[in-house]
Design goal:
alpha/beta, six-stranded mixed sheet, elongated, 6 strands, about 180 residues
Length: about 180
């Protein structure tokens, strides 16, 4: 058997994407005690998981500075690795380090950010740079497609005769009629 080919790495600048989209900003909760970013992060993780499925190994990097709880362990949710920058280090630095490590392998990497500094420092082969707006537009299209397909399924008839092959249905009717 041949060696398994590593999937491309998708690195997402978490708060950069959240702040670029009304979709995520609408989930920010400034009124409750606790972390105002929690729901926005959860939605972003779900979106990135759907976007990456089968194509990318996904990592979302968040700046721990400014979080309610800056001591966040790195963890994984829905197949997406979450990395919070350590105290005293920016998410930009973590992203640059991740990209540099993958370049040495070599492994293809796509970085999603609209931060021009990161886009300038991580560019080049084999790194693809994508703006946050492009990811948000793709996620909006994926969500609309899912909602359309779900609505279509909801309107389908659920009777047995509607779900079986027409030829088989005809044979059954003939048997029933004798």
């Amino acid at each position: 058997m041949g060696a398994e080919v590593a999937r491309e790495l998708l690195v997402v600048d978490g708060y950069n994407v959240i702040y670029k989209s009304a979709r995520y900003l609408a989930r920010m909760d400034q009124t409750a005690d606790g972390d105002p970013f929690e729901q926005a992060r959860e939605l972003l993780v779900a979106d990135v998981a759907a976007y990456a499925k089968g194509r990318y190994d996904a990592v979302i990097v968040f700046d721990a500075a400014g979080n309610v709880s800056p001591e966040r362990p790195d963890l994984s949710k829905a197949g997406v690795r979450l990395v919070f920058s350590p105290a005293g280090e920016s998410a930009d630095t973590v992203i640059e380090r991740l990209v540099s490590e993958e370049r040495r392998r070599p492994r293809a990497v796509t970085v999603v950010t609209s931060d021009n500094t990161i886009r300038a420092t991580v560019g080049g082969v084999p790194v693809t740079r994508v703006s946050s707006d492009v990811l948000v537009a793709d996620m909006t299209a994926l969500t609309a497609e899912y909602e359309r397909a779900n609505a279509e399924r909801q309107t389908q008839h659920m009777r047995l005769e509607d779900r079986i092959d027409p030829a088989a249905r005809e044979k059954l009717w003939r048997i029933l009629r004798g």
